[in-house]
Amino acid sequence: YNHFDNRVIYMDVHMSKESKILHDELIEELEKLPYIHFKAHDYKDKVFHVTISSKKIQKIYDELWEYVNNIPCD
C-alpha cells in the first residue's frame, strides 16, 4: 500500500515491461491530438495505482491506513 500524503490511500500497480511500453506509445499518439494536454502526473512517468480511499479522509486517515495495512496485498 501507499499514499499521497493524507488524502489518498492506494495500492501500487506493478506493470509488465510490455504494458509500460504500450502505455507510453498510447500517450505519444494521444499527444498528437491538439485538444489533449497531459499534466505531469498523467504523463509517462505517472504513479500507476488503484485508489482504495480518497475524498476528505484526512480526519480518519490514520485509522484507514492502519486498517488497510492489516490486509495482505501481494
Question: What report would you give on this structure?
Answer:
Pfam families: 2_5_RNA_ligase2. There is one protein chain. This protein is of the alpha+beta class and 74 residues long. It has one domain. 31% of the residues lie in helices and 18% in strands. It contains two helices and three strands. The chain has helices at residues 17-31, 61-68, and strands at residues 2-4, 8-12, 49-53. Strands 1-2-3 form a three-stranded antiparallel sheet, with helices on one face. Strand 1 (2-4) and strand 2 form a beta hairpin. The protein is elongated and about 45 Å long. The model has no long low-confidence stretch (mean pLDDT 92).
Oligomer: single chain
Largest sheet: 3 strands, antiparallel
Radius of gyration: 16 Å
Whole-number total of structural domains: 1
Helix content range: 25-40%
Model regions low in confidence, pLDDT < 50 over at least 5 residues: none
Average pLDDT level: 92
Q: Which range does the strand content fall in?
A: 15-25%
Number of helices: 2
Number of beta strands: 3
Q: Give the CA-based shape.
A: elongated
Distance separating the two termini: 9 Å
**Lateral arrangement of strands in the main beta sheet:** 1-2-3
Main attributes of the structure:
elongated; single chain; 3-stranded antiparallel beta sheet; alpha+beta; 74 residues
Give the secondary structure arrangement, pairings included.
Blueprint: E1 2-4, E2 8-12, H1 17-31, E3 49-53, H2 61-68
Antiparallel strand pairs: 1-2, 2-3
